[in-house]
Design brief:
HMA_dom, 4 strands, 75 residues, HMA_dom_sf, Heavy metal transporter
Amino acid sequence: MNDTVTYMLAVRGLCCDRAESAVRRILEDLPGVHRAHVSAAAGRAVVDADPVVVTAPVLTAALAASGYPSRLESL
């Protein structure tokens, strides 16, 4: 069984509920992501994922490709 890691990402462009939903869908559609909690108010996403399947660069690349630049805040 693989462990779950929690990634905290600072996400630019989170301005409303629609952006929150879009970012959550982008992240949760990635293989290995178990759950994503996105907050426009905080400007961040907290992602629980299988570190063997998905890494922080994969998460940030998927968001950047969709118009939401992000960076890893903590692991």
